[in-house]
Amino acid sequence: MTWMTYPTVAAETIQFLDEVGAAASWAARSGGGQSVLLLLDTGFSGCGPFGLGAVPLQRSLEVVEECIHGTVGEERVLVAFAGGKLAVLVRRFGPRRAAALARRIQQSLAAARGVGGIVPAPLGSVGVRTVEPGTAPEDVLEEAWIALEEARTLGPGSVQVFDPEMLRRRRRRSALAEDLEASIRTSQVQLAYQPIVRLPTGAVSGAEALARWRHPVLGSIPPLEFIPLAEEFGLGPELAQLVVTTALGQLRAWTDSRSVGPGFTLSVNASNSQLASIVQTDALRHVLSTTGIDPESLAVELTEESFVSGTETDTAAMRRLRALGVGLHIDDFGSGYSSIGYLSRLPATLVKVDRTLLGDPAGNPRDRRLVAAVLDIVGAYGLEAVFEGIENAGQAEELWRLGAVMGQGYHFSVPLHREAMTAFLRRRHLPTQGH
Which DSSP string corresponds to 147-193? Predict the structure, then answer.
């Protein structure tokens, strides 16, 4: 068995690809015999993102080597490792057996956890590509990567064998991403605004700006599709900049026309990568300056997951936003994390309570107690709360009776495009400072 650094060293990359090519040639000579390439996420990266030293790392790789050798024999395998990825080329081995081998390698990595007293990242996924007659080595590697990406979407530890449909889906997504990039750069991605109102008066206290994209051929693309697409293809920062710039320009127009009054807050959604982009450039400061918008009239919404899983860099970016005066809202509060300790550690100003915690507080005593408990927790940390997903007057009235101040949902309004939102604002009482 041969270990090499892959794919960071050009000469060894070529050597590995040569071996893949040799396996394809053997498949042709043997009349259709197969070999397979397995690409695994190991949880290790260099000496390890978790501080894994060289000795424990080497021992863990030796455990994997022993597993592979015991399963298929040393003379039939070539292994390469770098950047947390393990590439395993197994000669004269079919894809069905390869999936079982992948499982055994995963189990070996699990057994190696804790070597040297340090636990590496959870097991990653596996992509499998059959090395068939006439296949180019570069294509085999690319398609193993595609299978690995497909496996990742299924969750940690998943194994996927490459299928041509995966490549077709990938190409469609790439083409769609190119169209999205063009739409972002020509400002064709537009915004809709969903009001946030005070209970029970219905006075508008703010709005959430939501990106909307209408593809010239495919029509409206749901945000749950194009926003992850933007993140996947590195377009998230550009999308965030467009949303912030457009939202602040619209807020300026509403302020000048007196459609909104003092205390109105416009919030925009951002992922951790988008947050870093917003803070690390001067774009936000420049737009605030050129529009003359008070930073306190803008808020950035991050999901609860982003708050909990964010790095020290993310936390620093949040604190810089707050230092600038921009609000920081926790979105989807209560949607998946039981720990609330982060409320005291991070500079949030408002919590948006996920609709799953609302239920029917007017008719269900358990839901009523849950809402009251959430209000107590949020209030204990000195934060404001907005309840999302309000769909009827009964929910709104009971929330007010329990002490909630603000709400958002279809009971008040669906997300509205600029003209409809402007008309909505003019029909409502203008918000004022305070409650």
Answer: HHHHHHHT-TT-EEE--HHHHHHHHHHHHHHHHHHHHHHTT--EEEE
